[in-house]
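Worked example 2:
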Amino acid sequence: MIKKGIVGIKRLMLLILVIVIGCLSYAKVTHRPLPIQFFNVLTGSMADTFKPNSLVVVGRVNFEKLKVGDIISYESEKALVTHRIEAITGQGKNRRLVTKGDSNQAIDATSVTAQQVEGKLLFSIPRLGRFGEMIQTKRGQLALVLTVIQVLLLLNFLSLAKDLGLPKVIATQG
């Protein structure tokens, strides 16, 4: 039973490692951003939907397909913003998105253009925002890959120790 659990965890960690390395390789080889991006929520402007320090995952999207009610991340003059589309004005090259944070009373001061949009919200995970921030740096990516490798090595060691009957020996010596 324990062995099946260890094998399952090994497979999951290996899958994570392959995905991470694949994504990093794709971005490096193509010189294009990944099809998904991770952001840390810093403020409470969307607290009704997700709290500060949540991890938001956004995917690339065709600007013309965005509609009222979608949550998008976009570059503003000051920072990256993740807000809901409240209205759409104009058409074609003049199309603009009017946005507002769910917890804000007023709409945002400026409308959003196609060039500003980073992507559309796919999902969010509470309390995991700092992790998303970390894995966007080279050091963070290296740390993630090394951590996954360490977990795989530890799981292999535990599996080997169980096969050799070492846990009993280790427990009696301690």
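The radius of gyration is 22 Å. The CA atoms of residues 41 and 52 lie 5 Å apart.
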